[in-house]
Amino acid sequence: MPFAHQSFARDVSFLKAKATRQSVVGVVIALFALVVATTLAAYVQDGRLTWGGIVRAQQTNFVLWFLDLLPMFFAVWGQYVGSVMAHEAGAMVIDQTQELRTQTVALECKAHHETTHDALTDLPNRSLLHDRVVQAIHRAKRDGGRLALLVLDLDRFKEINESLGHFNGDRLLKQLAVRLQGVVRASDTLARLGGDEFAFVIPNVASDADLHKVAKTIQKAMDAPFSLEKLTLDVRASIGAAIFPEHGQDVDTLMQLADVAMYAAKQDNQGFVIYSSKLNMASPQRLTLMGELRQALERDELLMYYQPKFDNHCNRVTEVEALVRWQHPRHGLMQPAEFIPLAERTGLIKQLSLWVLKTVLHQSSRWREDGLEIAVSVNLSAHDLLDPELPDIIAGLLAQHSVPAKQLVLEITETAIMADPDCSLEILNRIAKLGVRISIDDFGTGYSSLAYLRKLPVTEIKIDRSFVMEMLDNPGDEAIVQATIGLAKSLGLDVVAEGVENDATMVKLKSLGCNLLQGYHISKPMAAKDFPGWQSDRESK
Ligand code: C2E
Ligand code: MG
Ligand code: MG
Questions:
Q1: For the segment 473-513, what is each residue's pLDDT rounded down to a tens digit?
Q2: Does residue 292 belong to any structural domain of this protein?
Q3: Are residues 437 and 505 in the same domain?
């Protein structure tokens, strides 16, 4: 504290000088009083004023002796008081300097904390994580150990944010941060990378099995639903891991590879994936594809194909299922399995579903104009069922294209509904009120309860093609198909069998009382322009 000492010494000498000035004034006043008193005493004593009288007054008048002492007294007192004042003030200055210093240190600490921690969750941020990984790599190099960097990303967080608002999104992240903090050990680091991405640094990883255990513990912490206002939300996350030294030697590489593993976990719905070089091959392609899909939507590069559904009662095709394709400039005609999961992960599915609905309803109105009365079914994703605007969008499009609501069927999977049953139920009820029909796609492959299905405004069940395709060779599959048809009938629902690939299966399904049949045996999906010709050919046979 050299600065404080210097300023203290300066202040002390300033105060001392000030006190000395006061004591000099005191001495001058005392001397003046002494001169006046001596002069008066000499005059009173002799009746006139002479030098000898003044000397005599000084020698004989003891009151003047007392006055003689006053200047000295003032001088000494002035010096003493001055010193005391100066020291007291100096001590005060030192105290205040100390306090200021403490405040400065606290402010510096706060500023440092803010630059290294995330404001929402108070967890270390990306830059502190970077430092921690660097330190952990140094230690691992020195001790010959392994360390893992895990990246966690919430599934469907974008939709939660969009449907429940950013305030609730933030509340969810805070709750999640607290839970995650509960599972990390003192030697681990948990950080928030931004958005819904978190990272863990796990030092001393003995084996991959250990890492799987850590991932399981993290996922377990998310098992219990999160509560936001009156809602309870089931939230899942995808976790990817990269290991030092096998996968990368520096922070950036480890980070990038953990990210690649996390995307693989998300895409394949696996929960947790440890990086491997196989994943890396697909990653840049995926990234390119994501950007291209966005452009494809803007440039209308997507196509709709239509697959007929054959009605057993009236012996003709009364409905078609709309199935999207992507005419990719380099990869050719791409199937939905190659890009729908990508669109779901990037949130692009909302735009894609809107494009599909617009295109299909436009097509439906053109067929109607040509005298072709055909119902169309459109596949929706889990994400669509979280969009509160969807019922109004559908109502608007039906009105715009003058398509009766009952001519539109929405196919949704059990898994999509169960992603957020309460929200889906509310949206589906609003859509059903419009008169639009709802079909449960891929029935039998999800995990919805029958009790829950009864609550849904469903009009149709589609038996998954995996049961239908092998039902003639596999008695278990046949039993499932038969039971599902029975269940649908007892609930008063239509039942569609998809994946009908041969005549024998068609005959069997007819005998079991299945209403609608769909499959390659009837027709493969075709372009819209081919459908009227195909339909009239079939009817003329
Ligand atoms: P899905 O809704 O279950 O559609 C039926 C799938 O089975 C279609 O595959 C169809 O081509 C195929 N299929 C039909 N009959 C047969 C058959 O006899 N044998 C075999 N092996 N397959 C048959 P596709 O067109 O590749 O679509 C796959 C999935 O992609 C669809 O399953 C649906 O979940 C999704 N999808 C397609 N179009 C869209 C869309 O516009 N939006 C959304 N969100 N998903 C879509
Ligand atoms: Mg479908
Ligand atoms: Mg299906």
A1: 999 999 999 999 999 999 899 999 999 999 999 999 999 99
A2: no
A3: yes
Mean pLDDT of the chain: 87
Atom of ligand 1 nearest to the CA of 356: 41
- Do residue 444 and residue 518 come from a single domain? yes
Cα 219 to middle of ligand 1, angstroms: 31
Q: Is residue 74 part of a domain?
A: yes
Q: What is the mean pLDDT of residues 368-380?
A: 96
CA 358 to each of CA 292, 298, 334, 335, 399: distance values in angstroms, whole numbers, following the listed order: 21, 14, 20, 20, 12
Segment 122-145, tens digit of pLDDT: 999 988 999 999 999 999 999 999
This prediction has a pTM of 0.58
For residue 476, give the CATH number of its domain.
3.20.20.450
**Mutate which of 379, 496, 521, 523 for ligand 1 pocket (most atoms within 8 A of beta carbon):** 379
Residue 441 lies in a domain: yes
Question: Residue 211 maps to which CATH number?
Answer: 3.30.70.270
Atom 45 (ligand 1) nearest CA: 379
| Closest C-alpha to ligand 1, atom 10 | 525
User: Does the Cβ of 336 fall within 6 Å of ligand 1?
Assistant: yes
- How far apart CA 161 and CA 281 sit, in angstroms, is 32
Range of the domain at 46: 2-116
Sign of torsion, CA 42 47 53 56?
negative
**Which tokens is 242 given?**
């990269």
The reported pLDDT for the residue numbered 344 is: 77
- The answer to whether residues 460 and 494 touch, using CB atoms and an 8 Å cutoff, is yes
